[in-house]
Amino acid sequence: MSDGKPTGLKADKGIELLTWGTPNGWKASIILEELKEAYGKEYTWQGVNISTNVQKEPWFTKLGPNGRIPVIVDHDQGGFAVQEGLAILTYLTRHYDPEHKFSFKDPLDISRAEQWMAWQHGGLGPMQGQANHFNRFTKERIAYGMQRYTGETERLVGILDTHLASTDYLVGNKFSIADISSFGWIHMLRFSGVDLDAFPHLKKWWERILARPAVQKGLEVPSKSGFGNDTYLQKLKDDKEFADKEGKLAEQVKAAKEQYGYKYSSP
Ligand SMILES: N[C@@H](CCC(=O)N[C@@H](CS)C(=O)NCC(=O)O)C(=O)O
């Protein structure tokens, strides 16, 4: 470590997680906290501040060639490294969830879980990520991009909401890696400009999962984000300047939708 910035791995046994407090990072920290609670499986982590580009440094890309967090390293498997949420969730449960508390034995349930995780990787994560990019991170506000990606995020969360109308969890009516894969994104839904209250079954699912002690702990690795749905709403109440800024952004997204004749429909 130099200046608190990691420069390489620090553990020599167990799982080491390289991560940051984002929807993708939380997939790994949440399953690791659940495995810790269920089986006493300890892990170590290092915070990789993505705004400083540590994730592009050679020591990191040797482990995660995509140069993004999260990455895990299993020191008990000769330092085997895994990148990508789906691969991390399935690796960890295949090796360290012998009682299938968060994963499945039945091949059809395994496929169901894989389908939801693939859907998250191909749809929810990239589209909501682009919504954040066009709504918040570009210098110019490009109306087409704003309504396109916010709209596509709404379409996708509508699919979750419909599915969750008849079940408490995505697969087999039990909390699993399928839920963990999408949970972090839904935890940031309000920040992405989508009204969680418009999706009541999804909102209940989010609350149900948020109530899990291990999930709470996972959301604090490396530190608690101010932009989860719960803290975001509180900040709107407490911080007038923040509320004004967010109100203006919501108006811009609304105007962008009107300009392009966007109408919600899902699927
Ligand atoms: N599909 C990957 C996405 C990983 C990803 O996009 N991570 C973001 C944080 S949420 C990141 O590291 N961004 C930093 C960068 O792009 O350099 C996964 O599920 O793990």
From TrEMBL:
CDD domains documented for this protein: GST_N_Ure2p_like (cd03048)
Signal sequence residues: none
Record flagged with keyword ATP-binding: no
Keyword vocabulary terms for this entry: Transferase
Entry-linked PROSITE patterns: GST_CTER, GST_NTER
Example GO molecular function: transferase activity
PANTHER family: GLUTATHIONE S-TRANSFERASE II (PTHR44051:SF6), GLUTATHIONE S-TRANSFERASE-RELATED (PTHR44051)
Family indicated by similarity: Belongs to the GST superfamily.
Name of the protein described by the UniProt record: Glutathione S-transferase II
Organism: Clathrospora elynae
